[in-house]
Write a structure and sequence with these properties.
alpha/beta, four-stranded mixed sheet, single chain, 7 helices
């Protein structure tokens, strides 16, 4: 087992109480089962058929910061160039995997848009119905994300609704303090005859390496 894998397993003990909303039992079990699968198989190597041409050792050997915090020092001026300037959008901005309310603009009326972290508490029945249903179990990085992801975008557009403008999601990682390892999850649900446009961007600020383990589950009726 790599040092990073061991660090992640140890970090779960610290992170787990904050990961599961209001202790949603289904989410708790989903995370623990995913972590068990990750512990059993570890990271893929070139001995695995699907990874035989991809050597992950240079990526995995970094001394990553795992339990990241948001960065309140990031200003709108810092992110302006990474946002669409010629298109009116709803905006969700995440710094180091954590939602930044003051950099976002998601005021809306007719559809559900919030953070994945908020949805764990706000929509437990929807989370139970959809979370983990599209993402493949037994895939190392998906399992790792399922175990650890505590934020991201949640969008649900109900049947026959049309979102009036695109939803822009910016994931920004600041890594001036060393290599950063972040894990975020999008859950996007478009019910029958619903219409929504999503624009997504991942951007690093700083010269240090960053590893974003990102999973989107998208359901379109």
């Amino acid at each position: 087992m790599t040092d990073l894998a061991q660090d992640l397993l140890s970090s779960f003990v610290v992170a787990e109480p904050q990961l599961n909303g209001s202790r949603n039992l289904g989410v708790v079990n989903l995370r623990k089962e995913a972590l068990d699968r990750f512990e059993a198989q570890g990271f893929p190597t070139t001995r695995d058929e699907e990874w035989k041409y991809t050597n992950l050792k240079p990526v995995l050997k970094q001394d990553y910061r795992i339990l990241l915090k948001g960065d309140d020092a990031v200003s709108f001026a810092d992110i302006k160039s990474y946002l669409l300037s010629d298109l009116d959008t709803y905006k969700l901005v995440f710094i180091n995997g954590k939602y930044s309310a003051w950099l976002s603009d998601s005021t809306h009326q007719s559809f559900d848009i919030c953070t994945f972290a908020a949805a764990l508490n706000k929509y437990p029945d929807i989370i139970a119905e959809y979370l983990g249903k599209a993402a493949p179990k037994g895939e190392t990085f998906v399992d790792l994300n399922t175990a650890f992801a505590d934020d991201g975008a949640y969008v649900r557009v109900k049947a026959n609704q049309t979102v009036d403008k695109p939803i822009e999601i910016l994931y920004l990682t600041t890594n001036e303090n060393g290599p950063a390892f972040s894990q975020v999850r999008n859950l996007i649900i478009a019910e029958q005859n619903a219409e929504v446009q999503l624009v997504e961007r991942h951007q690093n600020i700083g010269e240090q390496p960053s590893f974003t383990n990102f999973v989107s589950e998208v359901f379109a009726a």
